[in-house]
Amino acid sequence: MRLPNYDEAKNREKVEVKYLDVDNNINPVYINKKYFLRTYGCQMNVHDSEQIRFYLEKLGMTATDTLEQADVVVLNTCAIRENAHDKVIGYLGRCKHLKKKKPNLIIAVMGCMVGQVDVVEELRAKHDYVDIIVGTNNIYDLPKLLIEKKEKQNIEVYSNSDIVPENIIYERDSKISAWVNIMYGCDKFCTYCIVPFTRGRERSRKIECILKECKNLVDNGYQEITLLGQNVNAYGNDLNLGYDFADLLEQVAQLGIPRLRFVTSHPWNFTERMIDVIAKYKNIMPYIHLPIQSGSTRILKKMNRRYTKEEYQNLFDQMKKKIPNVAITTDIIVGFPGETEEDFLETLEIVNYCKYDGAYTFIYSERKGTASSFMKDDVSLEEKESRLKRLNEAVNKYSKESNLKLINKIVPVLVVGPSMKDKDKVYGYTDTMKLVNVEGGENLIGKIVDVKITDAKSFSLDGIFVN
Ligand code: 5AD
Ligand code: SF4
Which among 115, 290, 401, 458 has the fewest CB atoms less than 10 Å away? Predict the structure, then answer.
């Protein structure tokens, strides 16, 4: 048993990382059993679930979409805000109920939530029907724990890890578009954020392993690769090889993948060379998710974001100037402790300046153990909600405006699947990551095709296939 521990998580001694070749030979002791896997949260979790799915299938199980049919339930959880937490706890209630009827049901809770010390305490005290708890830094332990099947709750959470797992096999959700992890963890410690605690220290994967994985995807006909990391711009800093994210991006682009993307960026680590590389390669998509969090330098300082409003603006301007047709989206938090109306107006001001293609907006949510949880959460809920509403009005206006500009234009779209709503339509994404519902047959799926845009809404476009 190993419990999460925030002192361990905060200990960022730069000891050399160890590369672990994970064992993919798994005894299929769960033949004829069914698993139910539910994923909450960000792209990193979605990708982690592809690894989890590989283990569950290697154990001999097949997937079910119906909770009641499951022999093994795995919840891959998110801890970023209180509402993510509440959703999981609510769902656990359903699992508990099912276990009463099916005592042999195995329940595993994974993901960021179990990296939280207080959550694991709660799971131990009040949710003893949860059998297995595995953290994000040692997902590869899941098969071992499922095979062991201990009587007591089995907990393996490494709050910090010097290990970089390699040789992972993923049961990928898509044959068209693939995620590739380039690093694990985060060292930024933005004061509101739980991620550096739940995912441990920043560790870069080996260059040659990333390139090999990407080359394999190209050889297997993938159309798109998205490089993943909590802060991709910090790639390589811990390797001390004089090799950074710009170098990696360039080398992956040269492998010839039709579309290359990356998330998430941190303004502080975004160099001019990275912008130049994005501008230079046609297959690096002109789309950057560049979280700002706040437009007030005072609040940015309290958030430990390490840039001022002006520095962010300058970076934004450089991107717009150098990368033709670039779309930029962002994340914004309202109601951070001590945020005044003036601070909030500065956020609105920068939104008006940047006219983002899109923005994810959040009300500040206190996460236990983070630096901001020791600050006074002094903005009333009413005020937070009013700021969010005003912010969303501005954000939606600009995203619709940027979409409207595309009407009657012909743009390349990577078609990824059939439309859920209309059987004569498929859907895909522009190079700028805008969702398009396309009139066209399923034969378009997996291809990059020209689409004439016919209508624009705040969050999507309509179009017709033209060649
Ligand atoms: N409260 C509200 N939003 C948060 N985010 C991260 N932590 C919190 C929090 N405690 C937001 C940030 C981040 C995005 C993934 O989630 O905007 O960029
Ligand atoms: Fe959290 Fe900041 Fe790291 Fe992003 S960069 S994961 S917001 S600590």
Answer: 401
